[in-house]
Automatic annotation (TrEMBL), chains A, B:
<dbReference type="InterPro" id="IPR014710">
    <property type="entry name" value="RmlC-like_jellyroll"/>
</dbReference>
<dbReference type="InterPro" id="IPR013096">
    <property type="entry name" value="Cupin_2"/>
</dbReference>
<feature type="domain" description="Cupin type-2">
    <location>
        <begin position="51"/>
        <end position="107"/>
    </location>
</feature>
<dbReference type="InterPro" id="IPR011051">
    <property type="entry name" value="RmlC_Cupin_sf"/>
</dbReference>
<protein>
    <submittedName>
        <fullName>Cupin domain protein</fullName>
    </submittedName>
</protein>
<dbReference type="Pfam" id="PF07883">
    <property type="entry name" value="Cupin_2"/>
</dbReference>
Length: 111, 111
């Protein structure tokens, strides 16, 4: 599903939501482009995303920390981007609670 | 080629360049993600991009106008995004000369 109503990525930002807000902006069999809004969300300790697809992700507003199972971690601020290869286990350690964090994520086929 | 040195999309913005600056951020057979920096660039009248791939594009800094052969035009400001289906002919009518315009473009296979 494409949300053609969301013409601007910084529109309709919620103040505080119980779950992350995910909007699919474009999608076909090769790629899925999502806006993800976090308001202080984080994954639980011990949880890891383990994805079939590659993910290229950028933070465009707010701040967040990604942690990788291999041990690295990165704090991401607006403009910072990261490629997360398929099956590179990772989690969101925290997102700021001072403002909404806006991620743009591009998931695409690994092979 | 992936430019792993460009960790932040707003880094290394040129003031004035003769041609648009294109940096490939991630790429495989399904997708190519590019940062494009324009400093007042535009396509010539009569020129149309006619692409084999779909293009999802967003302006993240600056301002620009896209024109479509079918007649529509859209002024894009930071956060505004647009899906340009394969073979939808379009051109950049203008980009602001007041500051660099930063585009993020995701090209992906149409079929």
């Amino acid at each position: 599903m494409t949300d053609s109503n969301l013409n601007n990525l910084f529109q309709n930002l919620p103040d505080k939501i119980s779950e992350e807000l995910i909007t699919i902006l474009a999608e076909n069999s090769h790629v899925r482009i999502e806006r993800i809004v976090s308001t202080g969300h984080a994954n639980k300790k011990g949880f890891w995303y383990d994805q079939e697809e590659h993910e290229w992700v950028i933070v465009l507003k707010g701040e967040a920390e990604l942690v990788f199972e291999a041990g690295q971690s990165i704090v991401m601020q607006p403009g910072d981007h990261q490629l997360i290869p398929a099956h590179q286990k990772h989690r969101v350690e925290w997102t700021t609670d001072k403002e909404p964090t806006v991620w743009l994520a591009v998931y695409y086929q690994a092979k």
